[in-house]
Design goal:
The protein is mainly beta. The chain has six domains: about 280 residues, Gamma-B Crystallin, domain 1; about 100 residues, Sandwich (Gamma-B Crystallin, domain 1); about 90 residues, Crystallins (Gamma-B Crystallin, domain 1, Sandwich); about 70 residues, Gamma-B Crystallin, domain 1 (Sandwich), CATH 2.60.20.10; about 80 residues, Crystallins (Gamma-B Crystallin, domain 1), CATH 2.60.20; about 130 residues, Trefoil (Acidic Fibroblast Growth Factor, subunit A). About 5% of the residues lie in helices and about 35% in strands. It is built from five helices and 56 strands. The chain has a five-stranded antiparallel β-sheet with strand order 2-8-5-3-4, with no helix packed on it. A hairpin with a 2-residue loop joins β48 and β49. The two termini are about 65 Å apart.
Length: about 775
């Protein structure tokens, strides 16, 4: 393995991931242009790179500064990989090469090393999509000639190996087809990378070790010279400028006793970083498919599976009882191809023993899935929801609250760094599919958890309670927000068939998307934010959205009641906040009628905000099954709405509620109605039950005095959480006091000086002055 030097190119770059994260949201740095390994440098280094390093993170103890390290004996690395204390969990690789850069059809899929691919027919501009792992492209077969490293993401390449100027390229090479000689899969796991820089040749002098991205290697502005290098593990890019700037050099594992390959005696390396993979991911979840073979390298008898298999061979006891030597089609598993979905393989029958996560890809032999041995006896697909991963880990069994707990929403490479600790005795997976590891950096025993409750380590197959790192399995998506774009600013009862929304950005307000015309069919609530694919929008993969409706602002506090019987009878369950799992809280999820007293509520058929959803505004629903088409509610939450400013317009008089007086003396300030003046004293905001005036937002509307009776006047006071400061704005326009719900805002009337003062009066359907309209600004 040799270093490579970067050269100029006319490649178009986008979507690279240099951290352990999902593909969505990836960005490419401006320095990643091209890494180009010359043949001369390759010959120079043949005698300098005897090995690939070691899995041991403390490998520096094996280094002798005055001599090269001997070659690693055959089988040594495999033994280290399967060591129970430092077991490496490899992942499959996958990249797709498209001959046409603007087309995603007829791509060449690559899963493993390709010694000779020079016969592939490619166009002059190709699109390379790396889905898993890090790879190196070589100009010549057998991993020879100039080379080019790839991380996960997409890359458009033009004239890959040409060193001509851009003008010469346009003139001579614009139609020249691309040629790739060979391809190597180089980063397959998450083990810690390490590179040592020495101030002297042959490993002499002061050594400085690096394990991750380093934007500036110098200390206090001083950078030590480098005369020799040892790469323990990883593919490293080194730069002579800080911040990963300049032309990089690519180094693969091995010892570099001097810098002759770089045509230097010494160098000042100011920044460096290893190539990195993204997180675990699944591409297709609709129809899981896997092919298992009896022998390694996809030989022997194959068997295609689309569902779980409990055992590959009948147990001896069952044979004796039946008197038959009955076996399933296969007696062993030598290699595996996962075509769709994500699967879990188990060492023993009945989903027992060591667990191995199988992503889409090709596993040539048992070492490729990180097996402890060749034995693999059962398989099952994971059919869970991969969106919005969330789990809670507890240090005590049965989700005990006496110990510590931690909410986990993403990747954690070492739980010790969080302060939570390494002991986990129960886990509640609220959503997503998770892989938890016994050791840091995703090494050691692994356990796969989908949604559900795990009250003890035995529930997830653990031999002890140690968990040191975790990561979710992400749903892979095509690059988001591409293709045709349409902007919607109002209700749309029909979206033309020529436009099929696949992603969306909600820039303002909240919307309901429907899969049928005229605001009918299944509902999908979209709040402000970005949705990179249909799954993120809560839609099944094949959904076609046909209409859109704006959700109006609702100025009332969220309150909802669920009933076990129709007509609001039977057991009543009242909620004011979100409920993630109705059944988990001890309630019966079969609901017959619903009353929404305030707020906008999103109702979900299943727990964890899954299944069909429906948006409800304040209303009464005596027969929930008839309206919704289902008879259960698994979870629910109030719609999040931004705080909005509005003016309160009295429907009878046409005037606006105003704060009249000086905020420096609140005792003299009164609330009355006046003509429209467009000033802050007529602008209000509703928040958590308080009505506040924009000219004094630390104050809120209150009933004046301690004796609350019809006719009591209103004023402003500092927020004190007093009952008389809470209000409920009803859809009919009446604003009720929460302290005395029979009292609503009204205008005093009459002919006296205070005829325009706002007071509270008993509800009277015949008094139109009690009806107000909130005009949102």
């Amino acid at each position: 393995m040799k270093p490579c030097l970067a050269a100029k190119t006319q490649s178009k770059l986008f979507h690279f991931d240099f951290a352990i994260q999902s593909l969505s949201g990836l960005k490419v740095p401006n320095y990643m242009e091209k890494y180009f390994q010359t043949g001369d440098a390759k010959e120079e280094l043949n005698s300098q790179i005897p090995n690939y390093g070691s899995t041991d993170k403390n490998f520096s103890s094996l280094l002798k500064s005055s001599s090269y390290e001997p070659n690693i004996p055959s089988g040594f690395l495999d033994g280290e990989v399967r060591n129970s204390q430092n077991k490496i969990n490899p992942r499959p690789g996958k990249m797709v090469i498209y001959s046409e850069s603007n087309s995603h059809k007829n791509g060449i899929e690559v899963f493993n090393d390709v010694l000779d691919c020079s016969s592939w027919v490619l166009s002059s501009v190709i699109l390379v999509k790396v889905i898993r792992g890090c790879w190196i492209l070589y100009e010549k077969p057998n991993f020879e000639g100039p080379s080019f490293p790839l991380e996960e993401g997409e890359l458009e390449l033009t004239n890959i190996w040409s060193e001509n100027t851009s003008e010469e390229k346009d003139e001579y090479n614009s139609a020249k087809p691309a040629v790739i000689g060979s391809i190597k899969h180089v980063v397959k796991d998450y083990r810690v990378c390490q590179i040592d820089l020495y101030t002297g040749p042959e490993g002499l002098g002061v050594v400085t070790s690096f394990f991750d991205d380093t934007e500036e290697t110098g200390i206090f502005g001083t950078t030590q010279k480098t005369c020799s290098i040892k790469v323990h593990w990883g593919i490293w890019l080194i730069f002579e400028e800080p911040g990963f700037q300049g032309i990089p050099l690519m180094l693969e594992p091995g010892e570099y006793a001097n810098l002759s390959f770089w045509e230097k005696k010494e160098a000042y390396i100011r920044s460096l970083r290893p190539l990195k993979m993204g997180g675990r991911k699944v591409e297709s979840i609709e129809e899981p498919k896997v092919i298992i073979y009896e022998k390694p390298f996809f030989e022997g008898k194959p068997m295609k599976l689309e569902s779980e298999i409990l055992t590959l061979i009948e147990e001896e006891k069952q044979k004796e009882e039946s008197g038959e030597n009955k076996t399933l089609p296969l007696i062993s598993v030598g290699s595996i191809k996962v075509l769709e979905g994500v699967w879990v393989a188990y060492e023993k029958p009945g989903f027992a023993g060591h667990q191995y996560l199988l992503e889409e890809g090709a596993y040539q032999e048992w070492k490729d899935w990180g097996g402890y041995s060749e034995e693999l006896q059962s398989l099952r697909p994971i059919l869970g929801d991969f969106t919005n991963p969330h789990m809670i880990m507890y240090s005590e069994k049965d989700f005990g609250t006496k110990g510590s707990s931690i909410n986990v929403l993403g990747i954690i490479s070492n739980l010790r760094d969080t302060g939570y600790g390494l002991r986990t005795q129960s886990i509640h997976v609220l959503s997503g599919v998770w892989v938890v590891y016994e050791n840091p950096d995703f090494t050691g025993e692994q356990y796969i958890l989908d949604k559900g409750l795990y009250p003890s380590a035995e529930a997830w197959g653990g031999k002890n309670s140690k968990i040191s790192s975790v990561q979710p399995v992400q749903l892979f998506s095509e690059p988001e927000f591409k293709g045709n774009c349409q902007i919607f600013e109002k209700n749309t009862n029909y979206i033309d068939d020529s436009f099929a929304p696949k992603s969306s950005k909600v820039l303002g307000g909240s919307w309901i998307a429907y899969d049928k015309e005229d605001f009918s069919g299944n509902q999908y609530v979209l709040e402000e934010g970005t949705y990179s694919n249909l799954s993120a929008m809560g839609c099944p993969p094949q959904t076609r959205l046909k209409s859109l409706r704006v959700i109006n602002i609702e100025l009332s506090e969220p309150t909802i009641a669920l009933f076990e019987k129709k007509g609001f009878k039977g057991k009543k369950m009242e909620f004011t906040t979100e409920v993630l799992n109705l059944q988990f809280l001890g309630y019966n999820p079969r609901i017959a009628s619903v009353q929404v007293f305030g707020g906008m509520w999103i109702i979900y058929e299943y727990s964890n905000y899954r299944g069909r959803q429906m948006l409800l505004s304040p209303k009464e629903i005596p027969d929930w099954g008839k309206l919704s088409g289902c008879h259960q509610i698994g979870s629910l939450r109030p719609l999040l709405q931004k705080r909005v400013y509005f003016r309160l317009h009295n429907k009878e008089t046409g005037k606006f509620m105003s704060a009249d007086g000086n905020v420096d003396d609140l005792s003299l300030l009164r609330i009355q109605v006046t003509e429209d003046n467009r000033l802050d004293d007529q602008i209000w905001v509703y928040q958590d039950g308080f009505i506040k005036c924009k000219m004094a937002e630390d104050c809120c509307l209150t009933i004046v005095g301690n004796l609350i009776t019809p006719g009591s006047k209103l004023g402003l006071s500092l927020e004190k959480n007093e009952n008389k400061q809470y209000w409920c704005i009803n859809p009919d326009g009446r604003i009720h006091s929460k302290m005395k719900p029979t009292l609503v805002l009204d205008i005093k009337g009459g002919t006296q000086y205070d005829q325009n003062h706002v007071v509270v009066n008993t509800v009277n359907e015949q008094k139109p002055t009690q009806c107000w309209e909130a005009l949102v600004l």
